[in-house]
Write a structure and sequence with these properties.
Layout (H helix, E strand, L loop, with lengths): L1 H18 L8 E7 L8 E7 L4 E6 L4 E5 L5 E8 L4 E8 L2 E6 L4 E6 L5 E3 L5 E3 L9 E7 L4 E6 L5 E8 L4 E8 L10 E4 L5 E5 L4 E5 L5 E6 L7 E6 L5 E5 L3 E6 L5 H22 L1
Parallel strand pairs: 5-9
Antiparallel strand pairs: 1-21, 2-3, 3-4, 4-5, 6-7, 7-8, 8-10, 11-12, 12-13, 13-14, 15-16, 16-17, 17-18, 19-20, 20-21
Helix pairs in contact: 1-2
């Protein structure tokens, strides 16, 4: 009985260890949907809105921020003016979003109004770095645990940044979270996960990676069979991953639900461990 209990304990420990990361290798494509060709043209960023359970998509020409269902159907849109190279998008709650311009490397705070219009010049903003060529800030993600952000710079050099923004003071603090050595040609987007790790996307290498905050690659998935222009990534509270490509299209990746037999074994294991403990106490 002692050996059985030990075996089950080790198995459960392994189960817990696997749960500590997403296990990207187990994800598979479960849906491909066309995004609205007008408002979501050249889709380069996507974020999940936990309040509405909808996705918001941004094209790199900065013409509109569009709300779509989890299957890509347009719900509403907000017209943007004065933007030129929008590549990063993060939902921070309360109907508010942060948008970043790649070359300017600036971040802007906007409140979404369905059917409304907003000009870049009217928005609170903060600089995340000097103006550069087409190699600047490609993605940004909100860390709800502490109100900070993580941003990625495309290349020359690549960068993964810890970012704190005070829009009221028009200021930001930017530092290297780690110096990336991920083996990819570029960095296209980032998503903060609830386990503290990051999803980092490379468009040119067609690869999605789960990366620790020290830069260790914990898992990856090859996206080359889907498209070669995927530039945005987000994830919902169920662990479903959403990617957008400039086509524009939405790609949905899901992990398999554990089989009933797996759960039955887990429950049986917990029962056996409880029995061992009761016997020892007796």
């Amino acid at each position: 009985m002692r050996k059985l209990g030990l075996s089950i304990a080790l198995a459960l420990a392994g189960f817990g260890a696997q749960a500590a990361s997403l296990g990207l290798s187990s994800y598979h494509l479960t849906g491909t949907y066309a995004l609205p060709a007008g408002t979501a043209s050249e889709a380069s960023a996507v974020t999940w809105n936990a309040d509405s359970n909808h996705l918001f998509v941004l094209g790199d020409e900065g013409d509109a921020l569009v709300e779509v269902t989890l299957q890509g159907t347009q719900v509403s849109a907000m017209t943007l003016t004065g933007f030129d190279d929008t590549e990063g998008l993060a939902y921070i709650g309360g109907g508010k979003f942060v948008v970043t311009e790649e070359r300017l490397q600036d971040a802007y705070l906007l409140s979404y109004t369905a059917g409304g219009t907003v000009a870049r010049s009217s928005l609170p903003s903060a600089s995340l770095g000097p103006t550069v060529g087409n190699v600047g800030i490609e993605g940004i993600s909100y860390d709800a645990s502490n109100g900070s952000f993580v941003a990625v710079k495309e290349k020359t050099p690549q960068g993964v940044y810890a970012v704190s923004i005070n829009f009221a003071a028009a200021s930001a603090t930017v530092s290297n979270l780690f110096v990336p050595n991920l083996g990819t040609a570029d960095l296209s987007d980032v998503q903060v996960l609830s386990n503290g790790n990051l999803l980092i996307l490379s468009q040119e290498s067609a690869r999605l990676m789960e990366v620790s905050r020290s830069g260790q690659v914990l898992g990856s998935i090859d996206l080359s069979s889907m498209a070669d222009n995927i530039e945005g990534v987000t994830i919902d509270d169920k662990g479903t991953i959403y990617l957008v490509g400039e086509n524009p299209e939405l790609y949905v990746l899901s992990a398999p639900v554990p089989e009933a037999q797996t759960w039955a074994m887990l429950v049986a294991g917990l029962g056996a461990l409880a029995g061992v403990r009761r016997k020892r106490r007796g």
